[in-house]
Specification:
By secondary structure, the chain is of the alpha+beta class. The protein has twelve helices and 19 strands. It is globular and about 70 Å long. The structure holds flavin-adenine dinucleotide. The site of flavin-adenine dinucleotide (FAD) has 44 residues, from helix 2, helix 8, strand 13 and strand 17.
Amino acid sequence: MAPHAVIDDEGVPEPSTNGVEERHQGYRSLPVPEPCLSYWHRTTRAFPYLNENSDEEVPTSTKYLIIGSGLSGSFTAWSLVESGVPGSDIVILEAREAVSGASGRNAGHCRPDAFRGFSAYAKVHGAEQAKKIVENEKLVFEKLDAFVKEHRVPCDLNSTTTFDVCLTPEFAAYERESFEAYKAAGGDVSHVKFYEGEEARSRTKVKEAVAAYEWPAGSTHPAKLGQWLLTAVITKGVRLWTHCPATAVSKHLSSDMVGSPRWDIRTPRGAIAAETVVHCTNAYASYLLPRLSTFVTPNRAQAHSFIPTASLSGAKALDKTMSLRYSLRQFFSLIQRQGDGTVVFGVSRSNPEWSEETIHSTVTFDDTVYNHEIAATAAKAYQSLFVEAEPKQRRHGEGADHYWSGIIAMTPDSVPMIGAVDGKDGQWICAGFNGHGMARIWTCAPGLVKLMKGQPWSETGLPECFEYSNERLERNKNQELKSVW
Ligand SMILES: Cc1cc2nc3c(=O)[nH]c(=O)nc-3n(C[C@H](O)[C@H](O)[C@H](O)COP(=O)(O)OP(=O)(O)OC[C@H]3O[C@@H](n4cnc5c(N)ncnc54)[C@H](O)[C@@H]3O)c2cc1C
């Protein structure tokens, strides 16, 4: 069925509205230079590979060329090495400093959907795929949790539970319907707990809570996670070139032998010939694959860090994460870091209080700035939902800490693009995460590597609707721009 849905901050499609919608004209850009720094970037400036090989010419050839050093790129490299590929056969190109895309700028949540998105996904992809999408998210968190524990990754993982906090009776009713629909379709909800009224308020500590659902989820320091992965693969021989955008991929001139380079990748510091190219470029994928310019829409998302006052400090710090929802379109996300107590507060991409100008300004590749109106909404909601002290009562150092933005990749059918790039033998893609990559990359990147090794889609365990194909692009080509409202 042709989708007609916008996607919420957790990657879940929502019904379309009659809000601002435009014809999709197509978007293409390299990452812009000098992006702002996120909280995560500001606390990892000493990462030794941050500007790796930033002045060096690229090597003339490699077997595997991964474009993008976010979690998709680094976990693809990790999975290739795990599958037996020598690290020295892999080169990663990154346009800016290491992990400078969405992976280093998100709201820190690894928060699988437990049931809410089922109905909306079902409208786009059918009930069977929708169930697989939700099940896959649960698996991602389990895999990430196990990976971090097995490898003792120092990425501040807080493996806990999360609340979906319903702040209005209408949204509580919607959640109830979604829960029942998923359950009726055979979805497993045995890990989901439900509270209402006073119990919801006391468990969540949110005074406006009408009802709440709770299930396993977590938070991480995503830049530390990405940097650890890069360090691990570099230690195994993978080579990283930062500040080195791939500007074009073209057919290698003499690719007549099996195993010889098939593609030439241009960069400002020379050309590199590769047998296999993996696009882990998320919102920027269409720059090298122009056909995607009407499929992937960039959207600037924003997050905010606050230093809590007494109400969320010490023993009152929150060890559970949450999504605080007035409606499908108007919500906030919260994690509180267990080490330094910093609160990271995310916002939905729409809000009835925002001006048209603000709403339109989010469709952009520009992550050098943040939007003040969105930040003001976040600060106000954080203070009122958690009864934080009024500005005049705060001590110097409490309150707003840092605001930042990053670019996410929206697709009209709300799911990522994984697999072979049709018609470009030897090119692969793992991108288009709809602002929800933390709940997807941990199965998508290893799944892609299985495909690259010749295994069938069924071995990936991924929902079939994630598979990249020209047919999928065609099917969606006349869809209106979804991420503008
Ligand atoms: C503010 C914000 C909040 C978010 N909150 C959450 C959340 O709480 N939970 C969640 O699951 N997800 C969240 N996300 C989304 C999540 O961060 C992304 O889905 C995920 O990080 C995507 O990872 P990636 O590796 O595919 O893309 P990216 O991390 O964007 O990596 C792509 C990389 O490719 C590089 N690149 C692009 N083009 C080229 C080129 N031509 N040459 C060389 N390099 C290139 C870019 O510079 C970038 O480093 C959020 C995102 C933002 C911005």
